[in-house]
Amino acid sequence: MTDTTILTERRGHILIVTINRPEARNAVNAAVHIGIGTALETAEADPEIRAVVITGAGDKSFCAGADLVALSRGESLYPDDPAQQAWGFAGMVSHPISKPIIAAVNGFAFGGGCEIALMSDIIIAADHAQFGLPEVKVGLFAAAGGAFRLAQQLPRKLAMEYMLTGDPIPAARAAEFGLVNHVVPLTDLLPTAIALAEKIAGNAPLSVQASKRVALGIEEGRIAADAPFWEHNTRERGVLMRSEDAREGPLAFAQKRKPEWKAR
To answer: Does the CA dihedral 148-161-89-187 come out positive or negative?
Structure first.
């Protein structure tokens, strides 16, 4: 890919995918969506790629989620191509592939960034990393899978606290409850993720891929068990996005002021 929004690097049987918008805290716009989705398509189609590592540029942000500044300007965060739209937010959240995905979380993973991590199979986090779904603070909700995946991957009461307050989850706390596999110093982050990817890649690739598909219920590029969640998600999002509060939240964020909620 010539666009530098997403960087890809082949390292043996590993594909490293880097969100390269550090000036925007690696927030997701349409170019990020296309870049990640295309990288996953490449990984799935290439038998020489046996694992994917996804990370963010810099040492502060893995991904800040949706680009709310772009959203406040009326820009779409999704591409025009319906086939690419079907990949879900960031080209990933409803785009399951058979190849294992390891998220190397190099900073905060908030909103859609947390949802990218939740969609990954394994998470390695830098010790200063944080996770969170702060959408409720800006008039939105975690509509890219976070509203159901956080409750699936954490104890439900804990997930509800973090989702309804929008508060961040420190990496150590996330690891304590199994959301994160390993917490390491930042300098060890990518080497640890790559070493784990190489260990996986050393196993029989078709066995690894079949194991992932069975574990997650992936058939024909979809996770069947997720279908009712996505249908409910779409209905709720349709109602919410027509509200005044959903417009007020991103606007207040862009204007760096406290939002004025009207519950309508």
So the answer is: negative
User: Residue 28 has what DSSP assignment?
Assistant: B
Whether 44 is a known active-site residue: answer no
Q: Cα separation of 231 and 157, whole Å?
A: 24
Residue 114 structure tokens: 């947390």
Distance from C-alpha of 107 to C-alpha of 27, rounded to nearest angstrom? 13
Cα dist. 84→21, 36, 39, 51, 225 in Å? 20, 10, 12, 22, 21
Catalytic residue among 9, 23, 115, 198: 115
The residue written with tokens 């991904």 in the block is: 63
Q: What is the pLDDT of residue 3?
A: 77
**pLDDT per residue over 186-238, tens digit each?**
999 999 999 999 999 999 999 999 999 999 999 999 999 999 999 999 999 99
Active-site hit among 23, 48, 135, 219: 135
Nearest to 37 by CA among 3, 110, 86: 86
- Is there a catalytic annotation at residue 115? yes
- The structure tokens listed for 233 are 């998600």
The verdict on pTM exceeding 0.85 is yes
